[in-house]
Amino acid sequence: MEKFTSPTYGPLDYEGVIEKIASYITEDTNFRYKVIVGTDSENRDGMADFVTAIIVHRIGRGGIYFWRRSSLPNIVVVADRIAKETQFSIELAWKLRDTFRHNGLSGYEPEVHLDIGEGGATRDMIRWVTGMVLGSGLTYKIKPESFGATKVADRHV
Questions:
Q1: Considering only Cβ atoms within 10 Å of each terminal Cβ, which end of the chain, N or C, has fewer?
Q2: pTM of the predicted model, to two decimals?
Q3: What are the pLDDT tens digits along the chain (157 aa)?
Q4: Is 144 helix (H, G, I), strand (E, B) or coil?
Q5: Rounded Cα–Cα distance for residues 150 and 75 (Å)
Q6: 88-to-8, 18, 58, 103, 135 alpha-carbon distances in Å
């Protein structure tokens, strides 16, 4: 069972996250909303620590978010960690998209936020990683626009 944490609602399982997202979006339909998924990671003592966040942005008015943690051994190469971050984000975005198709939120297509950008060690991975997202049928943002990964998930990693 997937365990998520929310600063607003505390610990929740996946179904609880979906209930909170649905009630948040339907409580004020005067706003536009964006659903975002992003993952960040860090190496610690031979383990790669991954945090994947779901953000519901009430455009112009803040938002809510939920996050989960995963740890995997022996992922020390940056390219391998970025690939795994991207995989975690894509898989959760797909799951959200499929859930939304059955609960009345089908208009909210998740956007993937990637922890890569034009500067730094990840610039050579941009085409490869963005291709993974586009090939999965999703849209993406990279730094500096990818706050779902670089700010929200990063806060908990």
A1: N
A2: 0.96
A3: 689 999 999 999 999 999 999 999 999 999 999 999 999 999 988 899 999 999 999 999 999 999 999 999 989 899 999 999 999 999 999 999 999 999 999 999 999 999 999 988 899 999 999 999 999 999 999 999 999 999 999 999 9
A4: coil
A5: 19
A6: 23, 18, 24, 23, 15
Tokens 């992922």 found at:
75
Q: Give the chain's domain count.
A: 1
> Helix, strand, or coil here: 30?
coil
Report the C-alpha gap between 110 and 34 in whole angstroms: 7
Structure token pair of residue 59: 């455009």
> Which domain range does residue 87 map to?
3-156
Task: Give the orientation angle of helix 126-135 with respect to helix 78-100, to 10 degrees.
Answer: 20
CATH number at residue 42: 3.30.420
